[in-house]
Amino acid sequence: xxxxxxxxxxxxxxxxxxxxxxxxxxxxxxxxxxxxxxxxxxxxxxxxxxxxxxxxxxxxxxxxxxxxxxxxxxxxxxxxxxxxxxxxxxxxxxxxxxxxxxxxxxxxxxxxxxxxxxxxxxxxxxxxxxxxxxxxxxxxxxxxxxxxxxxxxxxxxxxxxxxx
Length: 164
What we know:
By secondary structure, this protein is of the alpha+beta class. The chain has one domain: L,D-transpeptidase catalytic domain-like. The protein is about 25% helix and about 25% strand. The chain has an 8-stranded mixed beta sheet, with helices on one face. The longest helix is centred in the N-terminal third of the chain and has 19 residues. It starts with a helix and ends with a strand.
């Protein structure tokens, strides 16, 4: 086989495989706290669902720093941290203006640094333990394999809705 023919074949084959390898990206996420599920959607099509763990005090909306609740409402995934102390993390834009007003009315700090993240780096060999119970300080935790997939399927500035 000539070099030209070989390169032509490789380019042709790559062109056929590329669409199959491309992952659909999510344009919105929904967290259902009571079902312990994180859902990725593209339009009305469900792309993926993941089992999650929440804050240690999961019922109700986050009100203040230290209450161990996962917030409820509409936010944005606004930045990511590949060097997190957990296996990767994507930041949720909590608190929003409404959250800040609610906390100020109570005279408390609303908290922050709410993320979707994997397992703590030092416990990566025991991932299932970390999604079988609520343990975070208000974040949404998934297994590292799930976090790797979410990382690839979700762009910055993607909306997320967290429902009770």
